[in-house]
Write a structure and sequence with these properties.
By secondary structure, the protein is α/β, with parallel strands linked by helices. The chain is 31% helix and 25% strand. The longest helix has 12 residues, at 122-133. Bound molecules: cytidine-5'-triphosphate and magnesium ion.
């Protein structure tokens, strides 16, 4: 284990798990964050890795308001006394903002991780924590491997985009707490439309680095993703 490993440090990391979405694109009866993959709900899968991580001091889960009033019991069973549950907002960023406001003040590093990414690897989490502990923003990301086209509204190709230097941003994303708080404060109401937290931190002028992630850290978005998720879970 390298000297920069975050594992030997005291627990000072707070994890925000936005899980308050409607899951509209996934469809189906049960909201996607509560839907089981190989028997285990997505949110529980996402929570498990952080709940067992020695650096994690607190976990705040943002749930749809009705669920926040009566959270599923397995949340506290897995996360124990470090868990807080808050009602999420109308957008992802509003949910993250609500969770950040409820985070234990002792946490100086904040990770934000989509509940809809149940296959995040421990190595990714450690690398994101290590970068945030150095004072920079960190984004789990994978290099773009497809050929990219820009097209007009009628699908006529305008150009092939050079993919050199292009990455797909995933989560977790990690930040020094004061940096994330300042970014949200500065962005004000416009923050509510942001689809990723690093964007706000970049806009506030803070450095952000990419951390090489695995391509199986997919975001479950559509019904097809649930088929893929079953396969990944049963590997
Ligand atoms: N999220 C949230 N609060 C919202 C919207 C989204 O906490 N108001 C969370 C989702 O629960 C998910 C993550 O943000 O864990 C990423 O969002 P996405 O994949 O878009 O999930 P949904 O918004 O639930 O899905 P959809 O956009 O298809 O409705
Ligand atoms: Mg959404």
């Amino acid at each position: 284990m390298s000297r920069s490993s975050p594992v030997g440090s005291p627990p000072d990391v707070g994890v925000l798990l936005p899980a308050a979405g409607l899951g509209e694109r996934a469809g189906g009866g049960t909201r996607k964050q509560f839907r089981p993959v190989a028997g285990v709900p997505l949110l529980l899968r996402s929570l498990q890795l952080f709940a067992g991580h020695p650096r994690v001091a607190a976990i705040v889960v943002a749930l749809p308001p009705a669920d926040a009033e009566r959270p599923p019991p397995w949340l506290a069973d897995v996360a124990g006394p470090r868990l807080r549950v808050v009602a999420g907002g109308a957008t992802r960023a509003a949910s993250v903002g609500a969770a950040l406001a409820a985070l234990d003040p002792a946490c100086h590093i904040v990770l934000v991780h989509d509940a809809a990414r149940p296959f995040v690897a421990r190595e990714t989490v450690d690398a994101v924590i290590a970068a945030a502990a150095r004072g920079v923003g960190a984004v789990a990301a994978v290099p773009v491997s497809d050929t990219l086209k820009r097209a007009r509204g009628d699908a006529r190709v305008v150009e092939t985009v050079d993919r050199a230097g292009l990455w797909r941003a995933q989560t977790p994303q990690g930040f020094p707490r004061r940096v994330l708080e300042e970014a949200y404060r500065r962005a004000g109401a416009s923050a509510l439309e942001a689809t990723d937290d690093a964007f706000l931190v970049e806009a506030a002028g803070h450095p952000v680095e990419l951390v090489l992630d695995t391509s199986d850290n997919i975001k479950i978005t559509t019904p097809e993703d649930f088929v893929l998720a079953e396969a990944l879970a049963n590997r």
